[in-house]
Model the fold of this input.
Amino acid sequence: MSKPSPSRMSAARRNAETILSQSQKRQENFRLEQKLAQDAMTKKIERLRELRLAKEAADKEAETANPPAPKARKARRSKQT
Done:
């Protein structure tokens, strides 16, 4: 068996390392995008929660200020036989 030439091994190694570094950069970018998307979703959820709680508080305050009128009952009619 003959040994591969050093320049050939170093070129293959460089190619492999280049591919590996590109893959690692893609993975890192993907993780960063996922983190940013998760942070944006968290902020959105917090904002919606605050709005919902504010609305519920306003509704409760309006209800205590103006209690709903009791509903009128309809007179029951007896069944005719």
